[in-house]
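Human: Not sure, check this?
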Amino acid sequence: MLETGEDYREAGLSGQWWEKRRFTGCDFTGADLSGLRTRGCTFDDCVFSRADLSRSRHDASAFRSCTFERTVLAESRWTSCSLLGTSFTDSGFVGIALTECDLSLASFAKARLRKLGLSGLRLREANLMEADLSGADLRGSDLTGARLQGAKFEGADLRGARLDANALVQANLRGAEVDVETAIAFAAAHGLVVR
């Protein structure tokens, strides 16, 4: 069943279980979605501004080109989800867990993602400009083409992460943990000749 343009603003939907539901252009602004569980659901161009998604669980669901502005995401769990092209602005990520998710083209500009477990995620062409990823676990993540101007990675674990030359020049990688391959690529990106 496809729901198009439905108005769920300020709705109380806490603790519900949704499976294989489809939403397009729906507005969840200010909705209480705490404890919501989704499996195999699709949300296209939906708005979750000021919504409460704390303690929610999402399995194999897609949130494509959605807007999360000042959204509460604390303690939420996302497994095998697609967040392609979704934007996150001034949202709270404390305790969020993302496993095997595709965040390609997503925007996390200026987001505080400190000490989060982000290993193995697909972040291709994501906007992480001025994001704070200090202490984050990004092992094995794909950051190819990501915009990282001003992003902070102090104490982050980037071993096995895929970063292109632009990312190695744009981001502040001081204090990040990298593997030998990334260290050599970093040196080459900064004009050093490694022999």
